[in-house]
From TrEMBL:
Gene3D superfamilies: 2.70.98.10, alpha-1,2-mannosidase, alpha-1,2-mannosidases domains, GH92 mannosidase domain. The lineage of its organism: Bacteria, Bacillati, Actinomycetota, Actinomycetes, Micromonosporales. This is Glycoside hydrolase domain-containing protein. Keywords: Hydrolase. GO terms for molecular function: hydrolase activity. Residues 720-746 are annotated as: Disordered. Residues 272-720 form the Glycosyl hydrolase family domain. It comes from Dactylosporangium vinaceum. SUPFAM superfamilies: Six-hairpin glycosidases (SSF48208). Residues 5-266 form the Glycosyl hydrolase family 92 N-terminal domain. InterPro entries: 6-hairpin_glycosidase_sf, GH-type_carb-bd, GH92_N, Glyco_hydro_92, PNGase.
């Protein structure tokens, strides 16, 4: 699996074959670029490192900032002025760009610092990135969980140097720069330097070393060496007073000589940064191969927990890379919180929760349950310290609440974890915070009126009340559970019973159609409100473009009129955007899993491919890639309901290892379909589930519990070329099943 990963997928503007069939009718509003980078990463680690050009959005590549259509070029070539750390992964216009601690190898004078040189001969794999600068220096980077190791192969020079710039941050776009507030750096002698820079309220410390007896370390300010200086202090930096500053190593090199620089990072000071460096690099010299192999082992272990059989080489590459992208974020920095002094997990880059809570966090819970529990513990601690559960959380002081996008999303993850019983949390304390958080921001209006605008927040808050009620009921707080469940029924206030769709309101990155088919906790009542199965299916068919012709996607700088016309289509946004990415499975609740199969296969065939342009939109910290992983396995997690929906998988057989157990999805009658990257010129015929067994017993329902998956077992799907009666009678559970005494049939 690991050998199939291509970190370059998603790094360039979308370049997929022209879609056929259903997928050709979908309209994409968001930027047509994956916004990933090919840099060195460690799974769920604190550090990432990649070539830095200043382009949008990670600092790698050539694109200017854009929010819709084909991205515009910021640079006409691939270039870099050095290598930075702490990049985002696939995010869009969230203005959280990092790119701190830039390291630049040079054979020029310090005056040339900041100049960008052409970048060529790139190589990338999990945990490793390499490229050659136009100066002729070959650059290789690997990272550990809290360290980065750079290896540079220099041409002959009497004064080669490796420059660490602590003053940089952000991007080379309008309003993209991050200015430090305070900083210090010092030369420790014997090839060691260290420094701390406060960026957005966070003290980021680095301890760096070069082991070369002919090289010396120095400090610099405003591109001038400070000969003999041992310390620089900046007590208050402003935009108007900022000048570049940092540390460097310099000395002679002969042609082909390699020099290694090791950097340890911490959010708790230089001493801890030095300890982190020693812990991961040890005393071996050099340490590059040691760290690279240790990181590759971590990737091999984590990615090895999913195995698939069959599929074309292109499909296997896309799947493996999707799994890789799904496991880069969030960042875990154990014992590193700069905001509270105690030990324990600290998680950041929960960007963007509204994208990852549906798909990526359930994947994390399955493949890395210990880390999933650590994330919840960290989020609870953030709530204690800052007063609310964040909707997004990054390496900065203060939760990024992103209140426009969504409300109360942590409740879904907590409810799933409690139902599985795998997170050793103080659940009574967690429940206190869950209840309190329901009254914050839009929650107060929801509490008083049972409806709030933007109307999608009504759905968020009603769902969060349901999730919290499940936790309260599990803890035997019956009165609280009943009160919460009563308020969870306010979802109905968001819908217009005449149209069966959401009421008119403001919407974030979509319209009311995009948000109308979310998987609510009472889908039976929601379908009844819209006129029953037939009306609901008719609306879904219109939404997914059945019978519609191909549409033209937005181009470069699409005018407002073009975007408004696209939104007026009221069409599925495909996997270019996440608000409606669970909508294909809404058919399950109306007894038409065959329609789910058709929509999902169209997306898997035409919306993902190999090469840099292989993603249809922002990967958003793995939210998009984890959708691909689940869809390929033939499962979809219903976040907050501890439930998985079943669909025809893309592979003949797959196995997910959860601790010491295995959940296997196997098929009979499976046909390996190609994807667009295989050069097909038609829409492959979909495959449909004919019958299912779970651990040898017939399963007429289109769902299984999350406990079924996590305890391990064998799901067998018999597939065929025509729709069947499977799943037409037994629907996934709804909250009203309990209210009216209905029982689920298995």
């Amino acid at each position: 699996m690991l050998d199939d990963v291509d970190p370059f997928i998603g790094t360039s503007a979308t370049d997929l074959p022209a879609a056929h069939g259903l997928a050709a009718s979908w309209w994409w509003p968001k930027p047509q670029v994956g916004n990933t980078h090919p840099g060195a990463t460690s799974p769920l680690g604190m550090v990432s490192a990649c070539a830095y050009s200043g382009a949008y959005p990670t600092g790698y590549g050539r694109y200017a900032k854009n929010t819709e259509g084909v991205p515009e070029l910021l640079f006409d070539r691939l270039q870099a002025s050095g290598f930075t750390h702490f990049q985002q992964s696939g995010t869009g216009a969230i203005r959280k760009y990092y790119n701190y601690v830039k390291v630049t190898p040079m054979v020029q004078a310090l005056d040339a610092l900041g100049e960008a040189w052409p970048l060529r001969d790139e190589v990338a794999e999990a945990g490793y990135y390499a490229a050659t600068l136009g100066t002729g220096i070959r650059c290789e980077i690997t990272v550990g969980e809290k360290v980065a190791v750079h290896r540079y192969t220099f041409p002959e020079s009497s004064s080669a140097r490796i420059v660490i710039d602590l003053s940089v941050g952000g991007l080379a776009i309008d309003l993209g720069r991050t200015v430090p507030l305070r900083a210090h750096c010092e030369s420790l002698g014997h090839g060691h330097v260290q420094g701390t820079v406060v960026m957005e309220g966070v003290p980021l410390s680095v301890h760096a070393e070069v082991v070369n007896p002919r090289w010396r370390q120095m400090l610099w300010y405003d591109r001038r060496l400070i000969d003999g200086g041992t310390r620089l202090d900046f007590d208050s930096i402003r935009h108007t007073t900022l000048r570049p500053f940092g540390m460097l190593f310099m000395g002679p090199t002969r042609a082909g000589q390699t020099v290694e620089i090791r950097l340890g990072f911490s959010l708790r000071g230089c001493e801890q940064a030095a300890r982190n460096l020693q812990l991961e690099c040890g005393t071996e010299e050099p340490a590059f191969d040691l760290v690279r192999e240790a990181t590759r082992d971590r990737w091999r272990d984590l990615m090895g927990r999913v195995q698939v059989d069959g599929g074309t080489p292109a499909r296997r590459t896309v799947f493996a890379t999707s799994l890789y992208h799904s496991l880069i974020k969030p960042c875990f920095a154990d014992d590193e919180s700069p905001f509270w002094p105690t030990s324990g997990p600290f998680a950041f880059d929960v960007c963007t929760m509204w994208d990852i809570y549906k798909t990526q966090l359930p994947l994390l819970a399955a493949l890395a349950p210990d880390r999933a529990a650590d994330l919840l513990e960290s989020l609870i601690r953030v709530c204690e310290e800052e007063g609310n559960f964040p909707i997004g959380y990054r390496m900065a002081r203060g939760a990024d609440r992103f209140f426009r996008q969504a409300s109360a999303l942590a409740h879904t993850v907590l409810a799933d974890a409690q139902a599985l019983g795998r997170a050793p949390l103080d659940w009574n304390w967690a429940l206190v915070h869950m209840v309190d958080d329901l009254r914050r921001m839009y929650g107060e209006d929801f509490f008083e009126h049972g409806i709030v605008h933007p109307i999608s927040h009504t759905l968020d808050l009603a769902y969060a009340h349901h999730c919290t009620a499940q936790v309260a009921r599990a803890l035997n707080d019956v009165h609280l559970a009943e009160d919460l469940e009563r308020r969870s029924r306010h979802w109905i206030n968001a819908f217009d019973p005449v149209t069966g769709l959401l009421r008119d309101s403001e919407f974030y990155e979509g319209g009311k159609w995009n948000y109308s088919f979310r998987l609510l906790h009472d889908m039976a009542a929601r379908i009844a409100l819209g006129g029953g199965d037939a009306e609901f299916i008719d609306n879904l068919d219109r939404f997914f473009g059945y019978g519609a012709g191909p549409v033209t996607q937005p181009g470069r700088r699409p005018p407002p009129a073009e975007m408004l016309a696209g939104y007026a289509l009221n069409r599925f946004e495909g996997l270019n955007n996440e608000p409606d990415m669970e909508a294909p499975w809404a058919y399950h609740y109306a007894g038409r899993p065959d329609r789910t199969a058709e929509v999902v296969q169209a997306a898997l065939t035409w919306q993902f491919g190999t090469g840099p342009g292989g993603l249809p939109g922002n990967d958003d910290s793995g939210g998009l890639s984890s959708w691909y992983v689940w869809a390929s396995l033939g499962l979809f997690p219903v976040a907050g309901q501890s439930l998985f929906l079943i669909n025809a998988p893309a592979f003949e057989r797959s196995a997910v290892r959860i601790d010491d157990r295995e959940f296997i999805v196997e098929t009979s009658g499976h046909r390996a379909n190609p994807i667009g990257a295989d050069g097909i010129d038609r829409d492959p015929a979909p495959q449909y589930v004919q019958s299912v067994t779970l651990n040898g017993r017939p399963l007429d329902a289109t769902h299984i519990s999350a406990a079924d998956v996590h305890r391990g077992g064998r799901l067998h799907l018999r597939l065929g070329p025509e729709p069947s009666d499977w799943g037409r009678k037994v629907r996934p559970p709804s909250a009203s099943d309990q209210v009216f005494g209905l029982k689920e049939t298995r």
